[in-house]
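**Protein fold record**
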Amino acid sequence: MGTLASRSEPGSGRIFEGRRQDAAPEARARCETPKDAAISTARTPDVRAYAYLAVMIVLGSTTSPLAQTAVRQLPIGLVPLLRFGTAGLCLVPFIGGFGAVRELIRRDWKRLAIVAACCVPINQYFFLTAAKLGTNAHVGLFYATVPLVVWVLAWAIGQEALDLGRLGGILISIAGVLVIGLGNVLGADAARSPAEARAVMIADLLLIGAVISWGAYVTLSRPLVMRHGALPTLAGTFLVGCLMQVPIAALTIPSWGEQVRTATTSAWVCLAVLAGVMTPINLALQNLSLRRLDASQVATFSNVAPVLTVVWGVWLFGELLSPALVVGGALTLAGVFWTSRPAPRTTKVATTSPPSWPSEAPAARPAG
């Protein structure tokens, strides 16, 4: 028992391959348990994870309008500093203080630094600048491609298997949001002045960087979530990302004066709601879902948010229910359903075939 415990990988619950062949039968039984549990999980939908995602979608659909209202009146360098600094501090009481964050930094500081950089300074520069220049419709349109970025990255680093069926669901979901976006462009957004058209074109280019950086954040944060928990990982990401934002904010302070003085109360209220409510709760729900589902499933499910934003416009503000909304919404929901379905029962053979014990495998390799 002591030998087995000493060979376990810290924080993962995984046992290295170099186990002695004469292990006790009960130890072998314990080794089979995770495999059986994984098979059971693959066959059964995780209702709690989908409940987290449902609430995340409702909150996430308000992020772009709130951020756009704030950033059009407040400095771009200030908004992420206050947003993620406040959100990180809001999470600290729920993780028992800063001890969990310090442990996260001590054990996984390299990955945390990359995740925090992708989430805060890099993504927020692209996203907020694009939101200031462009439209909410275009933000939703481009962010619909995040699941494809997540899937490609997760497959490239070996985090997810090559599942062409799941890729099909992602592409269907993206096609649905493209239909909605195309309907917006050919409708209310069709007539533009040359200056507005140029601003939207720049915003669209910036959104490419926003989508790639956010996809990298979602993909790379999943191992941290699995090892350290959803809330400690999120708090660490916010606080470290906020520290990374400080030098950028310091360089832009001389230009803040006029914007801060002339900003309306609505801009400050939108920033406060975004920082203290929407950001910590929305991304906490995302991380909780990442503990139970693949990153590509979580990202694809979030494609319902842009559809919901348009639906709210029809319901609350009397906007026109266009054919593009109906067709695009149906495609998006179909893609989400297809991607989120339980895995097929292809792993059943593993339960009937003789187990492959570590002593029969090649020499142990360090866990990646």
Remarks:
- The two ends are 25 Å apart (CA to CA).
- Confidence is low (pLDDT under 50) at residues 1-43, 345-368.
- The first helix runs from residue 2 to 6.
